[in-house]
């Protein structure tokens, strides 16, 4: 399952694909049928990558990726977001066993189910997640799928030589001898 670049934006419904970044913010494209592009302000907007989202668990937190994998396995009986709270709770007990029933609210369950309904038509569930390169300490270095291009930026205070500049002329060193 590959959810790289799919984000939830605080204060906006639905999911977005991270397209790029400019000086004003993140360029996002909605995943619904309208494909609206927006620029989310870097300083005021909070983005949450679906890869990083977890669900409160009784022992350990559950990754959203694992919950989605369980929903895909349960295929036929995924409730609608407008389903009864009892149905959602029963469904969530099936797809997220071990979640903390006091901390995970019905609104959270509805949000996860609505995200699934947005993503199920996309090929994201059949794609493999890109592998990460990890060093000896288990720290992620870089992704194999991402190509890094190293650009050598020119320092802003360095001045390039002018093409029209002339080399300095030698001073005339001839002297006159007195007679």
UniProtKB/TrEMBL annotation:
Domain DUF5606: 3-50
Domain of life: Bacteria
Record's compositionally biased regions (Basic and acidic residues): 137-149
Region (Disordered): 136-179
Domain DUF6852: 53-119
Gene3D superfamilies attached to this UniProt entry: 1.10.10.1650, 2.30.30.730
Name of this protein: DUF5606 domain-containing protein
Source organism: Pedobacter gandavensis
Classification lineage: Bacteria, Pseudomonadati, Bacteroidota, Sphingobacteriia, Sphingobacteriales
């Amino acid at each position: 399952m590959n959810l790289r670049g799919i984000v939830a934006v605080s204060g906006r419904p639905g999911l977005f694909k991270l397209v790029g970044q400019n000086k004003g913010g993140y360029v996002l494209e909605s995943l619904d049928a309208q494909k609206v592009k927006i620029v989310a302000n870097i300083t005021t907007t909070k983005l949450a990558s679906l890869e990083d989202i977890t669900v409160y668990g009784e022992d350990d937190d559950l990754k959203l990726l694992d919950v989605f994998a369980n929903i895909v396995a349960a295929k036929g009986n995924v409730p609608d977001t407008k389903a009864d709270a009892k149905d959602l709770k029963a469904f969530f007990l099936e797809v997220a066993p071990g979640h903390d029933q006091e901390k995970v609210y019905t609104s959270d369950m509805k949000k996860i189910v609505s995200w699934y309904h947005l993503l199920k038509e996309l090929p994201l569930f059949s794609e493999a997640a890109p592998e990460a390169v990890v060093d000896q300490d288990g720290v992620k270095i870089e992704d194999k799928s991402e190509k890094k291009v190293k650009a050598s930026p020119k320092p802003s205070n360095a001045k390039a030589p002018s093409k029209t500049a002339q080399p300095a002329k030698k001073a005339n060193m001839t002297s006159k001898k007195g007679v």
